[in-house]
Design a protein that fits this description.
Family: Belongs to the SPCS3 family.
Helix content: under 10%
Radius of gyration: 17 Å
Strand order of the largest sheet: 1-4
Membrane topology: Single-pass type II membrane protein
Subcellular location: Endoplasmic reticulum membrane
Distance between the termini: 23 Å
Number of helices: 0
Structural class: mainly beta
Main location: endoplasmic reticulum
Pfam family, one: SPC22
Oligomer: single chain
Length: 85
């Protein structure tokens, strides 16, 4: 079984600085574990991929070779609204 989610995106225009420096930023897309399938999951990976939008032709998907592997916690923290998921 394979699940995938986008947790962040950014459009970088030609001529913009392609070096990104983001520390302590909030997520653009909030995601939650509606089926409780992530809590305590020991098989989670995070990787970077991007598209280069051409003027014409196919849309290539480029992925970083390295992945960051981690475990989800056994218990979730309480969010700002005070609800525990």
């Amino acid at each position: 079984k394979f699940n995938q989610v986008v947790i962040w995106d950014k459009i970088i225009l030609r001529g913009d600085s392609a070096v990104l420096h983001y520390h302590g930023m909030n997520t653009k897309y909030y995601f939650f574990d509606d089926g409780l399938g992530l809590k305590g999951n020991k098989n989670v990976s995070l990787y970077l991929s991007w598209n280069v939008i051409p003027n014409a032709g196919i849309l290539p998907l480029i992925s970083q070779e390295n992945k960051f592997y981690f475990d989800f916690p056994e218990e979730y923290t309480v969010n700002r609204a005070g609800f525990d998921y």
